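Render this sequence as a predicted structure.
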Amino acid sequence: MQENTNKSLAVNTLALYIRLLVTAICGLFTTRFALEALGVVDYGLFSVIGSIISFIAIINTIMVSTSNRFIAVAIGKRDVGEANKQFNVCLIIHIVISFCTILFALPIGEWYIYHYLNYAGDITNALMVFRFTIIASAVTFIGVPYNGLLSAKEKFIVFCVPDIISHILKLVVAYLIVSYFENKLMIYSLSIAIFTAYPVVVYIIYCRKNYHEISHITFIRDKKCYKEIIIFSAWVTYGAIAYVGKAQGAAILVNAFFSTVMNTALGIANAINGIIVNFAQNVAQPIAPQITKSYAAGDKDRSNYLLVLSTKLTFLTMFLVSSPFLVGTEWILQLWLGQVPDYAAMFTILVIVDALIDSLNSGIKNIIFASGRIKMFQIASSTLKMCAIVAAFIVLKIGAPAYSLLYAYIFFTVLVFFANQWVLNKTLNYDNAYLWKKSYIPSFLVVGLFCPCFFLKLLIPQFVAIVLSILYLCILILLVGLTKQERNYLYSIVSKKITK
């Protein structure tokens, strides 16, 4: 059983990385072609209104974790009837959310467009873009329970493939409207809305065909189930608000105290950090449903092993991917941008350090979510994240440089790390010494032994320093970060791939 689950981790991680690579490349060129086709004014309109989809995506991510947790727990207990019950409760909740989105967002949004939107073109275009966006968002809400079911069943490739196809189709449309079509904004907006909603159709068809016993629709009257999921979702939402508030708060604070040039520097740092974090999350994502199912099945040894694996691999992967930016920040930014804004390098280093510390919490969140006892966890970690925003404001208010707000962020991220250790022990009576011995101490040893590489750029060219540091870090991860069992498993996977 363990061999099969370990194999599924490797397959799912590979699928997620392929999706990440394709969607990143498609997104880069889609933006370029869309800007060329639409022009600054219309693309600006789409960016403003289209950002609703980005916000909806955050909410969907929150709700997927909720659906995934309740369905995965039932699957872990091998109770198909309970899994079907939880699925239908989640589905009804999301149908209501979808209906309310259309009922309230459309009139409020149209009122805002008529009275406050600063747009030089035809206001009808703005209204149509908004309507397309809201309808597409409503459809994606309905797909959340199906996405949660696929995550619980660890069928990551099923939602990776439609997502990849969707991004490729968006790129094709963006390329075509450069030379074809008259009403480019309408064509582009409608296409983006369709391709955003398209994966949902695939999820529904696949689940209905392959998991009919869980996904067949039944009206559930048990109010206790609805109450439990809604309360759980409320606490998850509190955490998401703190996460988004911390990320967006930095940009707002920098803009309030400094010029937009500083915002550009912070934006560059956040763009780099976003790519690094995505790589790390692709390691943790396939492990999360296995933690939930192992915990629900009462397999304590397996859930502990996966907790250690998640925290350690997420941190080490993120450290490996971020190491070139930490060793040769200035050289990479110069190569990428040509003209590097002031303080961009400092922002980049500090944002990455903050994200690295936060990645140490990866598996803790998953196992606490699996238990369902998330109230204390969300109060402790999310409240501290919100306090970080206040601390950053005070730091800038007393006249500190713009990047100093990230020192405040890092300080509170360290507090969150230790708070999560306390919550883990209090909530689940977990042996924290085991986690430190198996995950944190090996990870910190890797960091300590790597530190001399930060001074290589003072002795040799930065490109050479980057290459040597990556090779050295790979050796450290294999020999110090991973156990003999983990190394042997990794070697066997590579050997099988080479043999094939």
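Summary. Residues 45 and 66 are 33 Å apart (CA to CA). The chain has a mean pLDDT of 79.
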